[in-house]
């Protein structure tokens, strides 16, 4: 009996030990955020806030579902710093199928404590690009490239990943599939979905800023952190096409207000659009040559309203705006490029705006004053008495005192040439 009881106890202890890991996850939470689109300041701030929230709530880990074409180097480095400084494990999962972690996204994936991808996804193409003067400066581009290579290598070495491929992704824009990334030790796991991923990494030991941590993710409750409206809004306006359209709307609104003072609404909307565009351009590298060409195009349109050029200035304005728009963010086949649809639409609307709406404002500015003393000059009146130096005239349903340098008989039409107080000086003829 004693022998049987001992065997039962040993079996019971082994069963409890086998269930220890699954039960250890009970009550644990994994926070999840979804990131889609270009890497920029709003995304970086959202990740930083999410890490802080997950840490404060003592979450088991933060799961980042990533799908990005890349983005700004400064924002990418801010995200990497947040991941490296985190006191909880950061899991980056390229998901869903068809997603990618390109350019800056590849570096973020390398920096994570656990790097994972879904089947049908890809990672790589991390070669740095720049615009403007740096684009033609070979020495500067060499420095940028070497810095990016060293950064990718250091992150891969820190996480025990394939540093040679990381350098290749930067230097040669190499890109690989999920299964290739797993075979090359670029990532840790290929998983079908977040639940499958959390099951696969359960028990894995990772190193965070506070030390080594063993993950207990199997059966953990997943809590989603939605991106706040502030970050969603800022992400939308930092899209190059949106920023470009906001800039043009802002310029047109201000110009309309200048040519038609008192309209208020165009000026207010234009000012708001310009401020938003300036914020967007502070996060997007732009070519000032392109910006000046756009402004030159607007000047050509304004001159068209003042000078008879038989359409030459209009054609020059359209050409200048189109070329300036192409140069503004000159990164072909990149997420930073302005689409041709936006450029053509803005060029056509610019022409319609200046030759249509704005021309009415200019005509109103140049038209004769209709009210006050100035509005009476040039008006036609009828002499009610003979004017031999002075008399009476009928104008706008009223009798006015009038003077004239010539004899005017009663009933004749006269034209107002001057207003002196409440007396009109008139001349013969209508």
Helix and strand layout, with pairings?
Layout lengths: L1 H23 L4 E8 L4 H16 L4 E7 L5 H13 L4 E5 L5 E3 L1 H8 L2 E4 L4 E3 L8 H4 L1 H21 L4 H9 L3 E3 H6 L5 E2 L3 H7 L4 E4 L2 E4 L6 E4 L4 H9 L2 H20 L5 H19 L4 H19 L5 H17 L11 H27 L5 H5 L3 E4 L6 E6 L2 E6 L9 E8 L2 E6 L2
Parallel strand pairs: 1-2, 1-11, 2-3, 3-5, 4-6, 5-8, 14-16
Antiparallel strand pairs: 6-7, 9-10, 12-13, 12-15, 13-14, 15-16
Summarize the structure.
The chain is an alpha/beta fold and 430 residues long. It is built from 16 helices and 16 strands.
Percent of residues in helices: 40-55%
| Rg of Cα set | 36 Å
Beta-strand segment tally: 16
CATH class of the largest domain: Alpha Beta
**How many domains make up the 3D coordinates?**
3
What would CATH call the homologous superfamily of the largest domain?
2-enoyl-CoA Hydratase, Chain A, domain 1
Shape: elongated
The share of residues in extended strands comes to: 15-25%
CATH topology tier name of the largest domain: 2-enoyl-CoA Hydratase, Chain A, domain 1
